Every structure is written in structure tokens, then in C-alpha cells.
Amino acid sequence: MIRFASLLWLALVAVTGFATFKVKYAVQDIEEELNKVRRQTIAEQQEIHLLRAEWTALTQPERLADLNRHFLSLAAVAPKQLQRKIDEIPLRPVPEPEPVIAAAPAPEPATAAARTEVQPVAPPATSVAAATPVAAAPSASADIVVGAAATVGAATPPSGMPKIQLIATAEAAPLPAVPAKATPAKPETRLQSAKGKPAQQPRSLDRLIDAIAEGR
Amino acid sequence: MQAAQRLDDNPCRPRHFKPPPPCAPVVADERANQVIETCRTRLVAAAALFAVVFLVVVLRLAEIVLVNGGGAESHIGRLPPAAPPPPARADIVDRNGTLLATMLPKPSLFVNSKALLAAGQNPDEAAHQLASVLADKSPAEIRARLVSGKSFAYLQRSLTPRQQYEINRLGIPGLDFTPEERRFYPYGDLAAHVVGYCGIDNEGLAGVERGLDAGVRGQREPLELSLDARVQFILREELQKVVKDFTAKGAAGIIMDVRTGEIIAMVSLPDFDPNRPGDTEGASSAADPKERLFNKITLGDYEMGSAFKIFNTAMALDAGTATMAKNYDAIHDIQIGRFTISDYHGKHRMLSVPEVFMYSSNLGSARMAMEAGAERQRAFLGRLGMLKPVPIEFDELSKPHYPAQWREVNVITIAYGHGIAVSPLHVAAGVSAVVNGGILHPPTLHKLPPGAHPPGERVISEKTSEQMRKLMRLVVEFGTAKLAAAPGYVVGGKTGTAEKNQGGHYQEKKLLSDFVGVFPMHDPRYLVLTLVDEPHGNKQSFGFATAGWTVAPATSRIVQRIAPILGVAPVDEASPAVTQALAIESLQGKRIETY
Question: Mutate which of A44, A54, A56, A216 to disrupt the B interface (most B C-beta within 10 Å)?
Fold first, then answer.
């Protein structure tokens, strides 16, 4: 009886002893791993710090200005380009027909423009239908369609399903290529004039900004 | 006896049980048995107790190891977060968090020659490889160190991180690095005078590094300055342009938030590279190092010329000795002692206060000051802080020069900014107070939280401040600073052109032209002060080197570039809201003669 109890205790001591050491070593391993990770973390942080310093040195305003001069030629923002409220931004004006186009025989663009401007007054349903053929005239193109869409949207009362109309007119925009038969020569002359210009004007972005500035 | 003997030996003998005296009759056996029985019971109880305790321990172990998997009770959560040791000096950042100064590891490379040779490394080959990384050392030089036989010899101090990486990659035995840190200024000379620089032991020697040394040394959190690196760049670029265009000796500029006194940009040209202070190599101009290190904004003391008329007019209006409608004699020159005071842009007629200010009439200003008197003038300038160093986080501060005895001639000259020399920072702080509603805020380089209202001291009434805003706008609209106009930003200001005083004589050819601009004038936000030292007129300025032709156009360009960055939206200058805010009643209906 006593012998059995002693054996039991002995076994228990052995088991707990073993378990204790096992746990201790496991903990040591984990701790080592932890320290390794911490060292890595610190190394990464120091690396990030270095990279941040390098990034700052590389993004010196002086250097960026230099790179801009070489590759982008971005201009400073002019006061008239800054607007605070959405309603201070004027609508894009209807572009005057270009001289090359005016020389072309077809008088279509003027009448087309006139028709679009009239359209918004008409009841919404017909205006959608009318917008599609109007967009067919290539010189009138997207600008007028967008302008028409905006006025239609503003003019129609909410009951007249304005959402559908806007979508319809927007879809109409890419259409012009299909009934282009009206004035087939125009796209070519336009392309030529566009080709001629870039040689004198160095940067497309500058031209865009100039165009916006002139538009105002 | 035998029983008693046994009892005596028994370690479990109860305390109260005493062995019978030798001669006493032998105790009965039953009693002894009873005692032994008690003993046993207690033993069992004690053993059971221990067993229970051990069981608890075992169960707890089992719970930790098996049930929770060792996670819950770990001390990981109690460890401090992994972070590199604090740097010798904290980073300095601008108001947007851009690094202006930081510590970089700059390890030094040394060689343990014994170890290198013991490892059987070929010194020629190693020297050749090292020379390809260390550009400024010849292979022969390196080889000499490699074979020196010493256990410590420096090969190169202050390696770049890339060089260290390359050397590690070479894998040459016996090489090692000593950890060292150096201060690094990624933006170089951009904010040199503000940030300052450090010595070899990382002690602050100039600028903020010195003035706020305690806030930087040994700290971990970066020091946030009120500076904006983008604005700083624009100011510096435009000033460089002015220096170049007018072949000037130098220039300086400061941009300040008039509502809080925060300094957004501060430039003094020529400047230096804080990474190599005192080193003129590769610098943009050939000025000597001492002049480069000189911060014109805080250390310079200049007679600011007509810009002082801002203070003179504010003083007279605030004291009530002058009103906007009052006229002053600009016909007769003033004779005082051996001096004759006359006007540079003479109108030779009676001028009202707005006209005196707009045409920058010395005579009118002098008569305004004489009317107010020396006592008032001195007290007013004292209130604006013009008679003591500016309180700012810098050690390099100039002491203003002003007459010890405030005589009448001093009153007259100080009215138009001569005979008193202050730093440009004085003027910036003073003008900010004049336009912002009359509250003087000490200028600061600390970033303030947005919307903060730092404490200030009222120096003039709100009404005077409003009148001064109108007058300053007038100068740009019709007066001497028309070229400072920036469409949409309602710039106002005052020009000043002073002849430099050298050895007690004013040098006609050596000018100091300055312009104090504020925008937008109907609701002042920022002040732009620019000055140029000894400009020379050029073709574009028709030979003029005065402020209206040199720094005023520069201010226009600066304002147009910085306003979008600082979040100032352009307004329609002709809109009623703006014109009404800046209309001057006494000039209503009068035809304003353009300067």
C-alpha cells in the first residue's frame, strides 16, 4: 500500500518535472523567436527611417522643379484656375466653328447647333429623339451634345424622367461616326490642322491650359 | 519503560505529552497506542494537504500548457514596443511633417589587420575591392592600412548607408563598423537659417537647433516647426531671382501668419548648406562663409525706410492726433539743424493722410510725427516691441539701435524709418499687429494647432487697424507698389527704400529696398516681407533699384504662388464685399492721382 503510494508520487514528481522543463524550453524558444522578431522590427524601422530621409532628399522642391522643367513643363496655378464654388465655374462655351471648317462647303454645323439649342424647349420625350440626329453632324460633336444635355437636365421638371434622358443623350455622343456621310471631308481637314500645330507648340498640357484660359 | 522509550523517540510526540519520570509507574499501553494513532491521523492530514497543493500546481500547469496553449499568460503583452534606441537628436519636421533634419547612421569603417591577415585574405585584392567602394581613397593607401598589423585602424569615417551595404557585400574578413550618428538635412540649404546646424558632437550651433536644443536633444518625438517647406522654397526661389536680376549683395524674406505670429517661411540670402556649414564649395555665390551664416532676418538691423510709415501713421491715427481727412503740408521742406528733409516723390501740395501714405511723403509723415510728439512715438514703438529683441526661439537676435535721446530730429527721421535700425522680424511682427486688428503676437517657430488663438497684446485699436488696412491697400492700388498687385489676392503693403548708412554717412548708391505686403487685405491672413540688399537697377526696372521696382514685383509673384498652397482662395477684387471693406470715406468722389 505504502509502496504503491510512493510509486505514484514518484511518478507524479517525474511527470511534473518533465513537464516543467518541457515548458521552460518551449518558453525559451518562443522568447528567442520574439527577440529575433523585435530585432527585425527595429532594423526595419531604421530602414524605414533611412528610406524616409532618402525620399525627402529626392523630393526636394528644387529637384522636383528641375524635373518638372525637363519632363512635364507644368505651369503654376493661375488665380483664375481656382474656383471655390461649383456655380462659379462657367459652362464650357459653344466653340466657334474653326476657320478650316467654315471654308468647307457644308453649312450644316451652324444649323445643327441652332437645332440643339432649340431642343431643350421641346417636351422631354422628343428632345431625346432629336438629340441623336443632331449629334450626327461631326463639327457640332460632343460639346454641343453635352451642353444640350445639361440644359435639358436643368429645364425638365423632375416628373419628366430626366435621368433617362441624360443617359440617352450621353449615349448619343459617340454616335457621330455612323451617319458621318453628311460631311465626309471634315474629319480629315481637322486632323491636318491638328497635326500642323504641335510643331510650334511644345507641350500638349500647356496648350490645354491655354485653351482653358482662353475659354474663360 | 520500553513504551516510554519508544514514545520519547517518536518524532510525532505531542507537545503536551511528557515522558513519565523514571520512577513513575509505567503508563498503560492503551494510552501509548492512542497517541500513536493521533500521530498517524495528523500525518495523513498533512500529506493530504500537500497532495492538494501539488494537485493545484499540476492542474495549473496543465491548464497553462494544454488548455491555453501558453498564450494567455505570456509576458509579451507586458513588453515595451520594439523601437530603436532614441536618436541623439530628435527629427525636425515642417508643419506638414516633411523632414528638415534627422539623424542618419554614419558608421565608420575600421580594419582589424591581424584578423584580416590571419584569415588569409589577399590584401591587394581586398584593397582593390574597397577602393571601388570608397571613391576618395587609392588602393595603395587602403592596402597600407590593411597590412599595418594593428588591431584597429580607421579606413573611412562617415560612410553612407550604400557604402556600408556594399562593403558588407564584399565579405572581407577583419573589417568592422563603429556605430555613429550624424545630423542630416535632406533639404540642404532650403531652410538653412531657420533650422541651423550642428557641431561634430551633435550639439546645436545655430538656428532652431541651438535655440530649441533642449527640445531636440535626446528626444524621440519630432519637433514640429511652423515652417512650410513648399512656401519656403517659393520664397527662396523668388528672392534668388531678385538677387540675380538686380545683381544685389543679398536678400531676405519672411512670411508670417498675421493671426498667430507663426513663421511660415524665412529666407536669408546668401545662405549655406547645413550639412557642411562654413564650406563654400559648390555654393551658388562667392560670398564668404561668415556672411552666409548671417541670418539677415533676425540678426540684421536695418533702417527700413518708408516701411516705417506704417507705424508712424498707425501711431498718429491711434493717438487721435491725425484723422484720415486731415491735410499735411508737403510743400515746404523741413530745415532742422544742418539737415533738410524733402520728398523723394515730391507732390508739392497739401496732402491728406491717405495721400501722404500712398505717395510715401517724408514731409507729411514728419509733420504727423512732430504733431504726435516724441513721447508718444517712443512709447508706441516700445509697445510694438521695436526697442528690444524680438522674443522668438532663436539665440541669434539683434538688439535694435535707436537714439538714446529722443530729440526732434530723431522724431522726424524715425517717422520715415531712418535713425532707428531694427531687424526685419521686428517689422514683420509689428505690421502683423497693425493689420490683424491690433493684437501683437510674438513671432514663433512652433507649429500651433489649427484654429489656435495664441495670447497677444493689444497695441492699437481695431478701428486704427482697419484704417491701416485701407491705406496699405491704397499703396498697391494707386501708390508706390502697383507692381505688387496679384490679381485675386487683394495685396496691400508699403514700400521702403533706404540709403545704407556706412560710417555715419548715407551712401546714395547703396540702397536697401524692402516691401511689406499683406494679403488678402480685406481679411488679412499672411504677411510677406522681402528686402534686397544693394540692388542695382536694370533694363526692366528702367534703372530703378527702389522697392517698387525690385521686391514689389517679387512679392506679387510670391503671393500668386503661395496663396493656393496656404489655402487662400482668390476673390473678385472688384466685388462689392472687397471694395466696401477697403473704401476710404475721405477719398470718396476724389480723383486719385496715380503715383
Answer: A56
Nearest to B83 among A12, A42, A60 (CB): A42
Of A87-91, B162-166, B296-300, B343-347, least confident by mean pLDDT is A87-91
Whether pTM exceeds 0.80? no
For the cut 50, the answer to whether the pLDDT of residue B558 exceeds it is: yes
Which of A62, A65, A84 comes nearest B569 by C-beta? A84
Report pLDDT for B434: 93
Chain B residue with the nearest C-alpha to that of A35? B82
3-state DSSP assignment of residue B34: helix
For B460-517, write each residue's pLDDT tens digit: 999 999 999 999 999 998 888 889 988 889 999 999 888 887 777 777 778 889 999 9
Which among B273, B244, B144 has a CA at the least distance from the CA of B532? B244
Q: What domains appear along chain B, each with residue ranges and CATH number?
A: 1-82 (no CATH), 92-224 (3.90.1310.10), 232-275+287-587 (3.40.710.10)
The long-range contacts involving B457-463, CB below 8 angstroms and separated by at least 24 positions, are B457/B383, B459/B380, B459/B383, B459/B384, B459/B433, B459/B434, B460/B314, B460/B318, B460/B433, B460/B434, B461/B318, B462/B437, B462/B438
State whether the Cα torsion B349-B355-B360-B362 is positive or negative: positive
Q: How far is CA B522 from CA A216, B45, B239, in A?
A: 26, 95, 26
Please list the residues that pair with B92 across neighbouring strands.
Answer: B101, B223
Q: Is residue B559 over pLDDT 90?
A: yes
User: Distance, in angstroms, between B511 CA and closest chain A CA?
Assistant: 30
Residue A19, min C-alpha distance to chain B (Å): 8
- Tell me how close the Cα of B77 comes to any Cα of chain A, in angstroms: 12
User: Is A60 in contact with B230 (Cβ distance < 8 A)?
Assistant: no
B47, B74 contact by CB (below 8 A): no
d(CA A119, CA A132) in angstroms, rounded, equals 11
Burial of B424 (0-12, 13-18, 19+ CB in 10 A): buried
Does the distance separating the beta carbons of B64 and A52 come in below 8 Å? no
Give residues with Cβ within 8 angstroms of B160, minimum separation 6: B106
* Residues B219/B90, Cβ–Cβ less than 8 Å: yes
Give the three cell numbers for residue B564.
493656393
